[in-house]
Design goal:
heterodimer, A: Rossmann fold, Arc Repressor Mutant, subunit A, 2 domains, 40% helix, B: alpha+beta, Helix Hairpins, Heat Shock Protein 90, five-stranded antiparallel β-sheet, five-stranded mixed β-sheet, 8 helices
Chain lengths: 225, 461
């Protein structure tokens, strides 16, 4: 997997490159918008991580030019501007996800992985299946093995998101944004309580748990080895 | 209508400026009255003295004639003086001892007038332009040896008329002066009142959180303008201090956030190749958790600063407060269950307001968080619409907050004694207040007997 990081802040760029490389990605880096656009135009990257404020060319403008050239490489915008307005602007310019600086590396990694999957996975599936857990998007029913599991609408959405990202870490912030459409940190970790409730229904009466907690990052739903 | 008027009057009577105006009016009225009474007495007295002087001169002249020419001379001169209308209103009568007139311009001895030497006052019939009139007269009776009597008097009806006129003139000018004084007092009082009121209203608005409000100046450089200017200077200074203090904490949060995030990133990267278990890994993880808590506090501070600065006003859109409330309750319902609290909803459907959905959600979430964390028991989230106001309330049946501490909990980092041990940063209610103000709404803490009740109010659409 090949990633492009367009970030002018040397310190941030360094730890992004270091972290992503250590996580197993091939990373190219540029500190300039024009150069970034030139590199991205090759279309050889699996995902682009770009800062919103860049010398040479603004991040949003760069993204706009890229999309105009019909290059749809999934991209994550980094920005110090955190208001909903800015987020909407970024996504409208062609960004696939938006992360406010400063961010935790695990958060960035989880989002990049989600972007890469989005590019690969077809959206036409009506059934998600991980091990013996099956979620039917049409009948909105869930069963594990032969046992039907009753879920509340929100629990269904939560499980759907976890299953769509199966095998990968999803952070609490990602869950809050995608399942609840909230863009703020609640004081108490309400997400933990929701996940533990879901766990009660999915994992409690079964020998091998599917939902796992990843310390310092979030949650991961994966098939037992 | 009448009640409102009465209320206004009562309010007016209580003011200092009204008392000042009343005092001014009383002093003014007393002095005007004094001047008028003085003018009346002196002018009336002047007329009296003039009449008396004329009479005295006349009597002296007649006495001289009598001394020189005897009774016949007196009769002669009286007859001469009585002949024709001289227009000076002098009246004469000389009679014998029985009262039969010998000479004079009075037809007979006036009725009811005693025969005794000294001053007399009587009414006399006088023909003026062919019409007989009764006129008051005043004069003196002199009893001459041998029983003759001489009556010298003066028609004082003109003097009485003059006096009457003075009285009326003074009365009217007095009344006019009093009315002018009353209006002047009222105007003065109202002007004074209005300027004091301006200062009061500004002070109230400033205390209500609008720190940039100032007392308007008139440019007249009078005492009130000076007072207003001084107050404004004082407010400027307070505002500078407050924003300075806030900026310091916001800047610290802003400037420390980035290095802290880098520190966290370095810790995270160090974990990538570290063994899953082990004392060192555990220590790094604990450090990451600590950094997360700090970052959360900084983010909360910056959120509040952003809401307070009004920078997010543009994100306002029509939204359903009922839906926001229900969504927040849904988010917190499992938390309530886990804590063994009953979370109840009483939400009227369709309460439209203009607002920032994310900020309002966060404010409601903070209130629920607080109610579950510090309150407990039965937590009720209600939202209603009445008289163009949208109100959202979160109440619990926990220990509540003593009345004297209710204002303080809105300040940043304020945590009350019993809750210090529970995790939290003391910023939750600060954000709620900032969000309420951003939406031109209010937030108030009340007693739920037992427990706390927090009420948010906005203008409904």
């Amino acid at each position: 997997m090949k990633l492009l990081v367009v970030e002018d802040d040397r310190e941030t760029a360094n730890y992004l490159v270091k972290g992503l490389s250590e996580s197993g990605y091939t990373v190219d880096q540029s500190g300039d918008g024009r150069e970034g656009l030139y590199l991205a135009s090759s279309g050889s990257y699996d995902a682009i991580i770009l800062d919103r404020m860049l010398p040479g060319m603004d991040g949003l403008a760069m993204l706009g030019a890229l999309r105009a050239a019909e290059i749809g490489t999934p991209s994550l915008i980094l920005s110090a501007l955190g208001s909903v307005d800015d987020r909407v602007k970024g996504l409208r310019a062609g960004g696939d996800d938006y992360l406010v600086k400063p961010f935790a590396f695990s958060e960035l990694l989880a989002r990049v992985e989600a972007l890469l999957r989005r590019g690969a996975a077809g959206t036409a599936t009506t059934k998600l299946r991980i091990a013996d857990l099956e979620l039917d998007l049409l009948t909105r029913s869930v069963k594990r093995g032969e046992t039907a599991i009753d879920l509340l609408p929100r629990e269904f959405q939560l499980l759907e998101y976890l299953m769509r990202n199966a095998g990968h870490v999803v952070t609490r912030t990602m869950l809050l944004e995608h399942v609840w459409d909230y863009h703020f940190d609640p004081q108490t970790n309400v997400i933990d309580v929701h996940v533990s409730r879901l766990r009660q229904k999915i994992d409690r009466n079964f020998e091998r748990p599917l939902i796992h907690t990843v310390r310092g990052a979030g949650y991961c739903l994966r098939a037992p080895d | 209508m009448l009640r409102r008027l009465l209320g206004q009057v009562r309010r007016l009577v209580k003011t200092h400026s009204f008392r000042l105006a009343s005092l001014y009016f009383v002093v003014f009225a007393v002095s005007v009255l004094g001047v008028l009474v003085f003018v009346y007495w002196t002018s009336a007295d002047f007329v009296e003295r003039q009449t008396q002087a004329t009479l005295d001169a006349e009597i002296a002249g007649l006495a001289e004639q009598y001394a020189q020419r005897g009774i016949s001379g007196l009769v002669q001169i009286v007859a001469a003086r009585s002949a024709g209308d001289r227009g000076d209103g002098m009246l004469y009568l000389v009679t014998d001892a029985d009262g039969h007139p010998l000479a004079g311009n009075i037809t007979g001895w006036p009725e009811g007038t005693p025969v005794a030497a000294g001053p007399v006052a009587f009414n006399v019939q006088i023909k003026v332009k062919g019409v007989t009139q009764t006129r008051p007269a005043q004069g003196a009776l002199i009893v001459i040896p041998d029983g003759y009597r001489l009556l010298v008097a003066r028609d004082i009806s003109d003097a009485a008329l003059y006096r009457e006129r003075i009285k009326m003139t003074l009365l009217w000018s007095g009344l006019v002066a009093l009315v002018v004084g009353l209006i002047g007092g009222a105007v003065m009082s109202r002007n004074l009142l209005r300027r004091v009121e301006q200062v009061n209203r500004t002070a109230e608005r400033v205390m209500g959180g609008n720190l940039s409000d100032r007392v308007p100046l008139r440019g007249s450089r009078d005492e009130f303008d000076q007072l207003a200017a001084n107050l404004n200077n004082m407010l400027d200074q307070i505002e500078r201090l407050m924003t300075g203090m806030r900026e310091v904490s916001d800047n610290i949060a802003h400037d420390l956030r980035t290095p802290l995030a880098r520190l966290r990133a370095r810790l995270e990267l160090s974990l990538i190749k570290a063994p899953e278990d082990g004392a060192q890994t555990e220590a790094v993880r604990a450090a990451i958790d600590e950094a997360d808590r700090l970052l959360a506090t900084f983010n909360a501070l910056l959120n509040i600063a952003e809401a307070e600065s009004g920078a997010r006003r543009s994100a306002a859109e029509p939204l359903d407060l009922a839906q926001t409330a229900r969504a927040a309750a849904e988010l917190y319902e499992p938390v309530a269950e886990e804590k063994g609290c009953a979370l109840k909803l009483d939400v009227e459907p369709g309460i439209m307001i203009r607002g920032d959905r994310h900020l309002l959600s966060q404010a409601v979430a903070n209130l629920l968080d607080n109610a579950l964390k510090y309150g407990g028991g039965e937590v009720l989230l209600s939202a209603h619409q009445q008289d163009g106001r949208a109100a959202l309330e979160v109440s619990d049946t926990g220990p509540g907050i003593p009345e004297e501490e209710r204002e303080a909990v809105f300040d940043r980092f304020v945590r009350l004694e019993p809750s210090r041990s529970t995790p939290g940063n003391g910023l939750g209610l600060s954000l709620v207040r900032a969000v309420a103000r951003l939406h031109n709404g209010t937030v108030a803490l009340g007693d739920n007997r037992p427990g706390l009740r927090v009420r948010l109010e906005f203008a409904a659409l």
